[in-house]
Amino acid sequence: MWYSVNGGARVPISGGGSPVSIPQCKYTAYQISGEPAPGVVVGTATLFVDGVWFDNQNVAHFYTRTGTYDNPFN
């Protein structure tokens, strides 16, 4: 996973977080929180998820999914 604040550079999300249980997930998920930089006003936050899936011929396919969220409090 990666994040971007206000259209800036992609920054990797690393480390653990608080474990949470989601019924639809086979494994433990982790809730991550943080502050991009002290004093920065967050207008938008974009989350990126990079992954690989394998088709029936065992060929790997790379994909990226993104979601951009507006800060309603700025």
UniProtKB/TrEMBL annotation:
Output this protein's name.
Answer: Uncharacterized protein
Origin species: Actinophytocola oryzae
Superkingdom: Bacteria
